Queue: 4 jobs
Job 1
Amino acid sequence: MINRLKVELCGIEMKNPVILASGTCNFGKELNEKFDISKLGGLSLKGLTLNAHCGNSGERVFETASGMMNSVGMENPGVKKFIEKELPRLNQIDTLKIVNLGGHSKDDYIQGIELLNDADIRIIELNISCPNVKSGGMSFGIDAKSAGELVGDIRKICKHKLMVKLSPNAKDIVELAKACEANGADSLSLINTVQAMAVDIRKKKPFFENVYAGLSGPAVKPIALRMVHQVCQNVKIPVVGIGGISSWEDVVEFIMVGASAIQIGTANFANPHTAIKIIEGLESYCEREKLKNINEIKGII
Amino acid sequence: MAKIISNKKLNEEHFLLTIESENNAKMGQFYMLSLNNQKMMLPRPISIYDRTEKQLQFLIKIGGEGTKELSELKENDFIEIQDVCGNGFPQVAGKIALVGGGCGIAPMNLVLKELKAYDKSSEIDVYLGYGKEAFLVEGFKPLANEVIVNIGGYIIEDVDFNKYEYIFVCGPNIMMQKLHEKAKANNSNAKIYVSLEKRMACGTGICLCCSTKLKEGNKRVCKDGPVFLSDEVYYD
């Protein structure tokens, strides 16, 4: 049987273009209890920082119309513990593992990359777009110049493929994307969550302790699609589309505007089996449309 | 998809939803109930009030738009539910108090049944605290040693902390905190287990939205809990 969904990302073959987004699949263990995660194209693992981080205090989730806001704040075990405790198990599973790395300072990123250089991984997703940490995080990802510099410095020392995750809160998403490409990014993923706010009218206070949080889900999909389209028109490196994807039709839209692969996030929370349903939907779609490979529709818009 | 068998209004705020679903759920566990609504995509975490092998029953309080929609489900409607979630209460025997506040009485019904099935010689007192009016009290009476009801006051004032080996609690955070403090003040030897409530997105342990700081570090209420030893919890 031919696999019509087989795609390639940065020279790495994937079973299909469906990746679970960072922060929506932890390190794969819980979902593997529910279904065989090796059926996925890949997993972008829970965002790491150099040192362990306990995340934000206070409420962390708020539902919005067709979406949700989160203020998890990069709770994670740190790079070293990840390499010791999570990676050996993950490497037994035949799917692409993408290691997501964030940081509070340039030094954090550099040291994190150095630790990961010797680890048995293939691709790093550089998170310069998390709106939920007070310092660093998204601040690197707003401005093309600072993002370009950071990516350039990391590229010099990083042994693995480098995917940069972009923020929709950037001043100019196209300039940002071009700066990352010019400084050696192998791939781009977008969009991270949209900075947003909720108010508790009874307490007369912001709902989140951090005041602002990240909005995701179908509510942001049209914005994500527009940004992925714009970026794909302006860079040559592969782009991974993210933002409110919850059906196979959504995936087809992202591929048509130029995405090489996609990530599913919030929809995993609504139903952990979403990704599998989407993969099945894409297979039937290719068959119906008589596509030998899903790539045939890539970038046709 | 699960079929609705019945949906019974208990009062203005509470209702009892019964659905058809094969399960082997245990006391203190919960389900994520999805809404048939594009606008609200996150499922609602709801603890199990009662069960048989083929049915699940949930006691639900209308807290917002999502639970209001669940209250409007009719017989023969369908809802999507996922696998059972959470750790549940431990199987213990002896002198036991079950303390529920408001909708927190929900898990105690199944707890009482399962603990009595586990060891029928266990002596189990049930304390039910209500804000305005009592409901579902009769259901506890056949198996409980005694059922103590408090309406409009503080149910924990009624608990004899030196009588029990185990106390299971579910209710508002402030009630669980006061119970913990009172047990300490009374030098109670009871092992206290609390069922925590937190806003959740996934219910499967992947989002870390319900992560809570306990004495041995962050724990996910949905996956590591919702039941924890009260001594492990920071009350603030």
Job 2
Amino acid sequence: MTDILDHQIAEPDSLANPRHDWASDNARRRIKKRYGRDRLLRAFGLGAVITALMLLAILIASLTYTGYVAFYTTKVKVDIFLDPQIIDKENPGKTKYRKITKQAFYAYFPDVKNRKDKRNLSKILSSGAQYIVRDYVVAHPEKIGETVTINLPLSDPFDQLHKGVIPRWIDAAGKNGGNGEKMLNPRFKSEKVLVWFDNLVARDMLSSPFSWELFVNADSRFPELAGLAGAFTGSLLALLVCFLISFPVGIAAAIYLEEFAPKNRFTDFIEVNINNLAAVPSVVFGLLGLAVFINFFGLPRSVPLVGGMALALMTLPTIIVSTRAALKAVPPSIREAALGVGASRHEVVLHHVLPLAMPGILTGTIIGLAQALGETAPLLLIGMNAFIPSIENLGLMEPATALPTQIFAWGDSPERGFVSRTSAAILVLIGFLVMMNLVAIYLRQKFERKW
Amino acid sequence: MFGSLLILLLILSVAGFYLGRRKAFVVAGGKRSQLHSRPLYHGLYVAALVGIPTLLLSLIWIFLQRPVIDALLLQSLDPKAIAGLSVSELSLLKSQIKSVAQGAIFGDPKPIVVEAAERLTHWRVIANWAMVATCIAIGLFVLIATRSKIARLFRARERVEHVLDLLMIAASVLAILTTFGIVVSLTIESLRFFDRVPFLEFVFGLNWEPQIPIREGQVTGGGAFGAIPVYVGTFLIALIAMLVAIPIGLMAAIYLSEYASKKMRAIVKPLLEILAGIPTVVYGFFAVLIVAPAMRSFGAMLGVEIAPNSALAAGAVMGIMLIPFISSFSDDAISAVPRSLREGAYGLGATKSETIIDVLLPAALPGIASGILLAVSRAIGETMIVVMAAGIIATLTFNPLSPVTTVTVQIVTLLIGDSEFDNPKTLAAFALGLTLFLLTLALNVLALRIVRKYREQYD
Amino acid sequence: MNMNVETPKEPVDAMTFQLPEELQVKVKTRDVNVHYGEKQALFDINLDVPANHVVSLIGPSGCGKSTYLRCLNRMNDIIDIARVSGKIELDGLDIYDKNIDVVELRARVGMVFQKPNPFPKSIFDNVAYGPRIHGLADNKTELEEIVVTSLQKAGLFDEVKDRLKDSGTGLSGGQQQRLCIARAIATRPEVILMDEPASALDPIATAVIEELIDELRQNFTIIIVTHSMQQAARISQYTAFFHLGYLVEVGDTEQIFTNPVDRRTQDYITGRFG
């Protein structure tokens, strides 16, 4: 800057005159240009906001579009004769229903004789149809010997065909550059099965009721039967463990740090630790769970107890931070008033500060639990992605799966039906998250105080 | 067993509470004002002293019982019978014994197994009863001892508060224990890994083929553990993510904080928060379902081959996930710029964009920078998107259109399914985890430091 | 505030005072009302500011003097809920006319704020900022000339000439405020608005600033809001007294402080309230 000092210093009075000519063309042009740049930045900003919202819209719309079909199942009405000679009356659960089911279905197609055709025909029905018949008989043993009408689900390809998700014919030479030649979708064995399928449609035997299976069934290899009940239970148990650990521990830690802790290196160290834990990648908590809970303490793999403990360690920083914020929001005058009537510091906190801070604490806890509910990686590492085909044997120490890991597992499955199942499961998960967040917002608004 | 013990201990504590309170009433002779502390505190004092130590003891017991019995079991086996068995064969034998002890007998187990299983069952029963007996005995003893201490001037309240303090400190220390647990467990497993694979090979090796043969004759890769390609892939994807997230996030923040009306802010900000609250597994599925195929067909239209699990698709989706992160950090940083600076610029006749670019952004830069650092740390540690949408094979490439793998993908693929803790493949995951932890820790510390410095500037 | 003070229902016509004929009116205010949302902050303000003079605006806090000041370069535009009606003219030009560009207006009517607010840039860049965005210099030499003269004019040049590249936020409070004055001068404004420019400064720095204001009068018209009546008496030729959103009295500074017409002015300057 030394060169500046070499300038002939102008007389101070020359500063004011001549003033800038704001009316000149040059000045006008310049201002116009500057406003142009302002509009440009504004447009960029608006563009960014719109882009972000569009991406959100595309995300939700694509999941809804692919997922809504999983909320109903294509079923076929079949009259089944519950042959008392085949079914063991004493023990109806032990009978094999495969044959009865198939025979009942074949009866609708008397023309189909040959074995191979019959096998292909039976593939229209879900492989799980026999169990539905079994469950029906177990529930209604008095019907043995009668002919009953049961709604049986179709197998995945036909379910998807009826929902219009997959086509019958596809371009022979791939998607693009095809010469217009069509070939049968390889998911169907022959053209005949399509004719039979059309026959079912023509006879008005198909219906599309709401898919309770999605909610009450456990997982299954067959997408048309796979449900989320196992995942619900697993997530619920893991969240319960997570809550039981992180809520009391988080509150205790927050109260100590906010209300009692002396300002020293030790408490500083704790705070730094908490801040850093909040930003540790979730997969590392999975490694921790694997190395400490499973390898060192010898707890079993895949169980909600271990999953919940890993999630609790992850959720803890969130709860501590929000609890501290809630405690800080309680004005000191309340504490002084209580101290003034002779309450001990602990009584002040327990009787006055904590109750007043509780809505804020609960809000933070719910948000922390919502995060834990959507967390996948740690559960994956400790093996909480078990295949759970039955919901009878679930507990804290039993192998389990959870909602996000179920989504991961379904998302990885090749069957077409699992695509819509995955989307549907995601919609359900997002539904839960939205509900939890709404509760949190409600709590915040209902109990929010302005001091 | 454990459950019933917990219930017993609970009953004992409640009994302690009532007995303690009762005693306090008695010593006060019906006049509460005679007591130093309210009877409630006397009761709580007894309950806490009965309940907490016994609970801790039973927890420690339950955690240690298994390793101890395992060790005893191993020692009790006939040394001749287990001579020459490898570590994995031994653990197989162990699990065989355990399943036999649980009554699940497959085929015809060897007599040594059956014998050991009986011993195991016997020991377990002994251990369980010993635990119950010890805990109850201690509980009862403490109950009687503490109850006898109750007197008119006994400062029960202070004691109870002291116990509360200890509990709260213990809760706070859990955060340290967690960090400690992470560091120690990752370090131990990593050291075991570096016993088998040279450290330098891991850090500088250009070849990552962790699929080593488990059985003889299995056709797999050569078992190379050079982490460079994995890290290159991680950074490539993180870079793409930041290229998506920073411009959109920052511009959106500028618009929302400076241009948007109050009403628009009130609508848009919660919507962006939804984007932030969506679980990452959902983003992963979105990448596989929509983004990757769309990119592929777009590439095909241009005549460019884009892999279905390209770095571009995974990175772009990760970028979408990070938009709200960047935008909320930037928004906070811009809003935190003192009003006076804003007015100073407007007072000189600066336009809105000039004020933003020349004054607000430079002043908010530390906050924005630390937000970006935290976002990078997230991108590096993000798991589900890349597990679902990125590749598994580690190829050393900077081409965003080809598949690459990341640290987190490798951790998950190496550990998913059954994992034995004695093979380099499993241990490699911990070595990767350790580097990941240190890397993200460094980024977070840096970000926090920048923020702290920046706060001092304006306070 | 003392409750004995009688607040008149009707605003007193402050325009009983007439500027001497020979003075050129720089800023003319007619019937200005300002609302913040539902609340009215200023009532029918009428005021003439003569060129190349210093006019002080005094009054108890919340009386509207800062609000009025911020009308003059339309800083109230930044506040969403503020609404200004009436007429303010700069050299006969209605500044609230829709054809008027605020960017140009604010370059012509500069402002110095209560708290020094240098940008987090170098000293040089702070002063050069206005000329740069408005394109007041055709080349680097001219720009440097403007910066140097502005710093000189603000009485800061000698103190900072060796560290023009250092950050402006590293200066002392008084220096920072003079830097802000230099920054305001650099855009060659016609009017400089000062909102309690010395309230955050120590007495010595205040004295420097006051001296500076007196010098600046030669080139600029200065309107200054001040809390300190002594300051108003020292530096200004005319003084306007605001109370509860009304302009109560305007006059020769000497007359206002020695012989106020209005009872409220008298109460205020004798320290009975405020």
Job 3
Amino acid sequence: MTPAVSGPIYRWEVGRKGQLAAAMLQLAPPVMALLRTVRPLLRLGSFWVVTRYDDVLEVFDTDAVYGVPYQPNLQVITASHPFFLGMPDGPEYQAQLATMQAVVLASDLPHLGDEAERLAAARIGAANGRIELVSFVRGVAFDLIARYFGISEPAPGSFALWGSRLFEFQFTGSAQDKAWRAEAEEFAVNFQKHIDRAIAARREVVAAGVSPDDVLGRCLARQAAGAPGYSDVEIRTAILCMIVGGPPQPPMVLPQAIEQLLRRPAWFAAAQQAARLDTPDNNDRLRAIITEAMRFDPLAPGFKRVALSSHELASGTPRARRIPAGATVFAATASAMMDERRVPQPSCFDPDRHAHNYLHFGHGLHECFGRFINHATLHRMVKPLLARPGLRRARGSAGRLEKRGPFAHRLELVFDDDA
Amino acid sequence: MKQVTLCVPLEVKPESCSRLTAAIEDLKRQEDKSADPNSPNFWRLRERIPTLHFMSISVFPAHDYDPVFILEANFDGPEGAFWNDLTAVVGEELRVMIRCCKRPSDGTGALYDAVTALASKRSVAPYFEARTQRPSVFHHGNRGLACQQILRDHSVFLETVEELDRRAPQLYRGEAPAKVHADLRTALLPNHRWLDDQAPERISPAERITDWAALTLFVLLLLAVAAAPGLLLAGLGVARDHLVAMALASVVATAAALLFWVRHLEVRDSSHDRPRQDERMLREMIRREDWITQNHMGSIVLIKPGVLRTVIVRAGHRGLHLALRALRASRAGYLGSMRTVHFAHWAFLNNHSRLLFFSNFDHSWDSYLDDFIEKAHGGLTLAWGCGVGFPTTRYLVGEGAEHGRQFKAWALASRTVSRFWYSAYPDLTVDQIERNHRIANGLRNKSLDDSAAEAWMLDL
């Protein structure tokens, strides 16, 4: 059986390396706190770590200098077809962005939120009082996004496997690593073929007079109307990248957020109360609590950028350093969100913080395209679970969040199943 | 609870002054929706900077200097978070204003370049931080009450009034005070669960101790300086066995000498009895005043030259500041017997050659100054007496502001138009805020006995 059909969700899950890396990452917050004070811009050869809020924002805002390094890996995933995630700002970037904005609509968000909650509730109903949170959220997230984009689950294989492995390759892998690259290519080719088949099948369905209102349907309608940017390859590339970039995020970040809440019983209780009181205000409250919990263990410790030209970062301040062209710059968003110089009382759990205190999905030109979908759906994915009475950790180590490298691996919860 | 008062003075490029003024007016038009009853007024500042009590942006023209842009802010909590919040709301508007100002020639020039560069997206927060001017004297009315607490207390007050009106007043009239308190608490609690929490401490014991320690240290330092000549003489062998007596004699002699010197200068000072008023500016100031319960003023004056004056004005401001922090009335939320000042401060500008004053106060400017003249003329004379043209003073604290008409004319001439001014609670006086707080605090008690409830009801 090929890896594209079954296998571990992440390469980090194989062997001891993932556990070791996870243990190392546990040390990051105190190290970053120290760096923010003594060496806010740390140079490690050609690798620079940017730790303060102001400087992280400057890196993101100066996108003409600090470019995204995603292109080489992205080419492996898309078979060298361009996608705006890997592009600098310019007409091509803006055109591609506009084509996606025309089919992924703000008006879909309320429905997506409801759908996320419905899918989650259905899975919890069949859970018999015990749930492994990471795989639970993964199932909901991929199911939700696949339906929204109009692509059915592959057989053999699975979106969760393909999407997660390609996400891992895109953001933590290297195209220079031949074995990893070959593996990623296999996943990518399978994924591309599956979407191609879905496009062909949809075209037949549309020809038969049925036209489901999903992203694929909208893309094909625009293609039929002659709108630029919607060739079959462009549609395939966009849907592929969206499924690779989006749904792997919730199973990383939501178990981490729940783990943080479980460590704070009063806030865990507040989240449960908000989940049980099914009103828009309480949905907002739950979102705020989850978003704040994520700040204590975010999606990623930071984002990489590459200096395209020499640039003085934090110029005009005593910590100013000149970053040479070609250097890799790590904008440590997790550290920035804990920077007491800009974030009031960062060690306090405060769900009433302003949106600009959060950098969960980056900032500026390449801020995550799916951030609005995350905003609408993340809290709704765990809402039915939080609403369950008697929700608590499973006994023993299974009830503690386990990670492999930067990825959440397991967290088991139990609840009273008689509700 | 930490509260901060600060200002950011920036020298304006003379050729950009009208553009800067227009930018401030644009910001005012954008945020101030008071003319439109359907739009919430200043909602962006109110919602997104919940720690901000008052903020003003002004441009001060001058004959002796280029115009100066000043942003004044009074807020709760750490400064870095405030600047971050402010720039998240109006950062680009502030960048336009900075571009109208001169590049500073001190160490912040590079930061100015970074934030004003063409198409710069660099946050202006670090620049404002670097250019912040600390006040020499400040007063916080309703000290220790966070902005959100003031608003919460007020909503309790309004609901209390509503509840009293809703139920026929006679139903309360015949009841025991403790029962009235219990009924009102029961009625308000569902909408104000925080009434179940203990009231946060307005001024912590550590803060009080620090305030008194700083004042004591300052007085001891003054005494040490005054005693130094006597101690020096004793060290040189003059009355070596009478060290204490020499120190005391030195303090008396130094004080006498300084007073003599001060008086010598005072009688030769010129007061500016009829300063020239800019009619256009006066009309503009009048046009903007008395729309709401509160008003705002900003003033800059030149400081009299001389070594003694330089020393005295700094020491006087330091002492006044420390006294204002330690005094019981100030801790209770008032400026001595004055109950109309929310946030006020003095700050030195241009290497201590100019003195800035900002105040956010209740009622009209005239009655505010009358209040000052009547109740706090000594402190006012001490703080402002160093200003060129100030009415004749006597031993630093005498006369001066007592010359009411002259003082008002002098103060008026030093003012400028408050082009942008924001108050988080424009309808509340200092007194009303204290009253609201007492009512809310009373309701935090699960029960009161009749005598305590009766005393509490006096505020209803």
Job 4
Amino acid sequence: MKRWDVVVVLVALAVAGGLYFSGLLRADTPGGVAVVYVNGVEKARLSLLQDTEYRVETEHGYNIVVVKDGKAEIIDADCPDKICVNHKPISFRKESITCLPHKVVVEIEGGNENSVDAVVQ
Amino acid sequence: MRKKVAYYGIFAALSILMGYVEAIIPVPLPVPGIKLGLSNVIVLLALYVMGTKEAFYISIIRVFISALLFRGFLGFWYSMAGAFLSYIVMVLAMKSDKMSTIGVSVLGGIFHNLGQIAVAIIILGRTVVVYLVPVLMVSGVATGFAIGVVASYCTKYLQNRI
């Protein structure tokens, strides 16, 4: 062991600690947006940061989109199959809820990607 | 000269074997990318005992063959970037003559991980993985230290025999 070995180790640990605690690399900052499309046309952008309720009126009926605790879901609709209502709340980028009968799509933009769906070796 | 070819073969075979041994040791941590870096023992040995050019060739051969055997195409890019970056840094560290094998190995470990993160960012096309940087730096220091201790004992033993 020489003096520089110790220096290298200490500097590396200090840099790692600094990066960790500075929060500079914090990737898990929320900030996703739930975008509501009707028939492919953007109707509304709802930030996942604040709880809101949005009523989508379409020519076929309505859907009620709710943002709560950073997640978006459709809590009510008058479509026949109710697939959108039964869909789980979404929060990760690219996740979406589709109501086929009403041609309504709620998709998450920005924010975090579902970290499970990546493979690193 | 003929002897040198044999040493290339032995060192390359050893480092590929180390890669295999490492692949069958599970790492009990939930962070992707943490590895012991056993094959770096061999690259370090080659650096100190044979020379920089030889260590480079051995490192490249190792990356190619272990990618063919164990890792696959994506794994190839990860190992290649890691091996290349850590090789450059280790050569610079060794040439500076300021630190022992342990310091060189620690730097190699850190930059191996940084190289892999760089590739991960390119391949995954986003910066989510950067939050792994501090974790992988610390793991690079830890494994680099252990590998450096092993390598420094080995070099002492081998120095006068090759």
